[in-house]
Structure formats: structure tokens, C-alpha cells
Design brief:
Blueprint (H helix, E strand, L loop, with lengths): L1 H21 L21 E15 L2 E3 L3 E3 L5 E15 L2 E12 L4 E4 L6 E4 L3 E14 L2 E12 L2 E13 L4 E14 L12 E16 L4
Antiparallel strand pairs: 1-4, 1-12, 2-3, 2-12, 4-5, 5-8, 6-7, 8-9, 9-10, 10-11, 11-12
């Protein structure tokens, strides 16, 4: 009787093992999908505002009869807006920017034909630039040089400078920039005696700015 019971238990065990072997294997859970973090790029259009300080390095008019006229030490508030485009290639960034600026840089002088001589013209001034930019990006930090064409209401010239820009978000950047501007004013209408003279305006600008970069990256 004992042998019959042991044989029955063994037979049931083999049958259960065979049934378990016939069951389908449980599939492993899918691996979690981890989204890649977007890499920031400087490529894209942007627009912004800026404000700072400008100071004259040379704003003297030379007249052969009246001599030098003007004050080369004036300075004041400078502010305006800019638009531009950057294109990033690896760590290098190139671009083009144009800006228009209000510039309260001090006293200008004009010739008084009724009473020969020069008198002060306290009207505020302005200038603009069209510049190329080229620099090196360290992720969200950009160090760049800039230079190009400068102009005002009665003058044309050139400008050169550099700056540092940092992207706080994918769309908002801030910059600190310095420019040297050299404007050669129109020499044809300075005065009846200034046929051999000229009025060269040179000034420096230090400004901070905010830009909004269009696009998500």
C-alpha cells in the first residue's frame, strides 16, 4: 500500500512539472524610454534692447580761421534696440546684427553765418550700426568680436568692439558689449572758411542688453 501511495505522489509531481513547462513564459517589461535633453544652439533670429554709457574721445571741429571748436570730454546715456541672426558651426558662431541708438553724448557746434563764428547746438544725437559678429560658444556662453559700418544723421564711419553673451533660457540671453565708433561728418557745410577742415567724431560705448531668441532651442 505504501509503495502504491509513493508511486502516485511521484506520478502527480511529474505531471505538474510537465504542465508548468507547457505554460507560456512571462514577457519581460519594456525598458523605460528616456528622452534626450535638447542641446542648446545659438542659431536663429533674435531681437532685443540695450542701454549704457557713451563718451567722446574726439569731437573737435577744425576751422582754418577759428581753430579747433568742440569738447572732447562729453558723455552720457546711450540706449536703443537691435535685431540680428546667428549661425552656429560646432563651437563657432557667426552672425549679423544691426542696431539704432539714442546717444546723449554732449554738445555739438554749428556755424552761425549771421555772426561769423560757432555756437552750441544742444540737440540730442543718434547713431546706428550694421555689424558682423564672430565668436566661440562654450555651451550657453558666447565670447565674440564685432565690427562693421556706423552711421548718423550727417556722418558715416565704422565701428569695432566685442562682448560676452549668456543664454539664461533657450530664448532669453543677456550681453555686455563695448564698441568704438568713428564717424566722419559731412565737410561740405561746416562753414564758409572750413574748406580745408573737418569734423571727426569718435566715441566709446559700454552697454548691457537683453535679447529674445526666436525658436525653442
Amino acid at each position: 500500500m505504501k509503495k502504491i501511495l509513493l508511486a502516485s505522489v511521484a506520478l502527480l509531481g511529474f505531471a505538474g512539472a510537465a504542465s508548468a513547462a507547457d505554460l507560456p513564459l512571462r514577457a519581460a517589461p519594456p525598458a523605460p524610454i528616456i528622452a534626450a535633453v535638447p542641446v542648446f544652439t545659438w542659431t536663429g533670429f533674435y531681437a532685443g534692447v540695450n542701454a549704457g554709457y557713451g563718451w567722446m574721445t574726439d569731437d573737435r571741429l577744425y576751422d582754418p580761421v577759428f581753430g579747433f571748436t568742440g569738447d572732447s570730454n562729453d558723455g552720457g546715456f546711450v540706449g536703443g534696440g537691435q535685431i540680428g541672426y546667428n549661425y552656429q558651426i560646432g563651437s563657432f558662431v557667426v552672425g549679423l546684427e544691426t542696431d539704432i541708438q539714442y546717444a546723449d553724448l554732449g554738445t555739438r557746434y554749428r556755424f552761425n553765418a549771421a555772426i561769423p563764428g560757432y555756437e552750441e547746438d544742444d540737440s540730442s544725437d543718434w547713431f546706428g550700426t550694421v555689424r558682423a559678429r564672430a565668436g566661440v560658444a562654450f555651451d550657453r556662453a558666447l565670447i565674440y568680436a564685432t565690427g562693421g559700418f556706423a552711421y548718423a544723421d550727417d556722418a558715416n564711419g565704422w565701428t569695432v568692439g566685442g562682448g560676452l553673451e549668456y543664454a539664461f533660457t533657450n530664448n532669453l540671453t543677456a550681453k555686455v558689449e563695448g564698441l568704438y565708433v568713428n564717424l566722419d561728418r559731412d565737410r561740405d557745410f561746416l562753414s564758409p572758411t572750413a574748406t580745408g577742415g573737418g569734423n571727426n567724431t569718435e566715441f566709446g560705448v559700454v552697454r548691457a542688453g537683453l535679447n529674445f531668441k526666436f525658436g525653442s532651442y
